[in-house]
Known about the structure:
The structure holds 2 protein chains of 2 kinds.
Chain A: H1 2-32, H2 39-60, H3 66-93, H4 102-123, E1 128-129, E2 137-139, E3 150-152, H5 153-175, H6 177-187, H7 189-194, H8 199-225, E4 227-228, H9 234-247, H10 252-272, H11 278-292
Antiparallel strand pairs in A: 1-4, 2-3
Helix pairs in contact in A: 1-5, 1-8, 1-9, 1-10, 2-3, 2-4, 2-8, 2-9, 3-8, 5-6, 5-8, 6-8, 9-10, 9-11, 10-11
Chain B: H1 7-10, H2 14-37, E1 38-42, E2 48-52, H3 54-84, H4 90-155, H5 163-181, H6 185-195, H7 200-208, H8 212-230
Antiparallel strand pairs in B: 1-2
Helix pairs in contact in B: 2-3, 5-6, 5-8
Amino acid sequence: MEVFAQQLINGITLGSIYGLIAIGYTMVFGIIGMVNFAHGDVFMVSAFIALVAFLLLTTWLGIGSFVIALFIVLIVAMLFTSLVNWAIERVAYRPLRGSFRLAPLISAIGMSIFLSNFVQVAQGPRVKSIPPFFNEVIVLTPASSGYEVAVSYKQIVVWVVTAALLLVFWFVVSKTALGRAQRACEQDQKMAALLGIDVDRTISVTFVIAAALAAVAGTMYLMYYGVVSFADGFVPGVKAFTAAVLGGIGSLPGAVVGGLLIGLIETLWSAYFSIDYKDVAAFSILAIVMIFLPQGLLGRPDVEKV
Amino acid sequence: MAHEASPPASRVDIVRALRQTAITALITFGLLLPLIGFNTVQNIRNEIVLETRWPLLAAMVAIIAAGRFLHAILIAPWLARRARRPRREDGERAVPRARVARWLVPFTLGFAVLYPAIALSLSGTQGAVKWIDNFGVQILIYVMLGWGLNIVVGLAGLLDLGYVAFYAVGAYSYALLASTFGFSFWILLPVDLSHNLPLLPHSRARARHRRHDSAAAAIADRTGMGSLARG
């Protein structure tokens, strides 16, 4: 029981990170019907930007408080990653809009390879680690019981930041004019354009929001694991994409639910079975869900967009 | 160019070009500042520290800005002029293309057949190993993979990124059977083919969801198989 509770805590933390990345996939897919394979690498780039910002703040400017440092790092990472994703959309996807269906997809795969290689060349192939912080834990079980169920401060930070940003983000998408424009473009781009919505701008904003959430995930990843390397984008990216599909791609709550599920499946499988096969487990469950529920858990029935 | 239709539009506008260059330089600076401007390195005490690379950053921004400026004052007006010129008929352009296509296939095939001989004669028996064994074999493997992908993506219309997993299954089953039982290549060739047969129903299942789902499943396969193989 204690082991299970502990794994639940770990799984939710991992799942929050996946969920944040998954939203980027699901939004971009919703609006232009393209799987943005570079998104995982945008996440990795954001973790590197966060690393640089963190080192700048702590070693150069000498900010002692990790809370303030983390807050500034989050904002810096969100800004710069948004710029990166905006540029990617302009350079790699916008010229291919209206081209055949596979063209932007292949371009995205190329972008993914480009980003990871760029970071490898620019920052070196070695794993970068930051000094650990927020290491205190809160022990939840009484001292008499044999197994300690503990929540670390890091995990609480991940939960709080994820929840707060999801709330802000949900507000933007469902209550503001920007969100309305976005949903309109999702439904019918031509009609939205006829009604005076700047479709190109809306798509750019979608990429910027997706990147900002990936940057939050990247910063949380860096803080939680303390390490990052140029190759760290692919696997979390693929898992987040899996999460988006599992939850029903195009559905925002679905992406979060899918992310949490993938995180939990992976953690529980690693705890009770074999850690080597955790990816196989996560993807097998995806395959099973897709056979019986092709739209994902919370997805809408598929209306073919031509 | 007998008649310039709209002189004001085609004249090189230096102010506009400079403004575009400035914007491009600013964006490039923003993009490259975190990862080129700063470098994270480990010092002798194994601590991670920051180094700056301002000259490199400045050089990159300068190159891109120069490219943008040249584009604005030379290439963009040239493209605009070309777009205004009357287009050649499609049939006129098709003739040289057909001629190229007619000779391309025999030429490529001939080159492929003669490739080992050319490599041997140019670099001798020692040097040719690299060209034939490393490059030649690798190229032909990619050719075969390309054929397969052409069937899956081009003819069946499935974006099957998991296709490469079949390649891995073939390689692994050949390696395991050959090293464990010592079977020869020619015995294992059909055996390997049959190893990929169990994956057939799975591809049929895949064909039912045609859109993003197939890409998802494909990626899932690919990663899944990768981890199976590693596990």
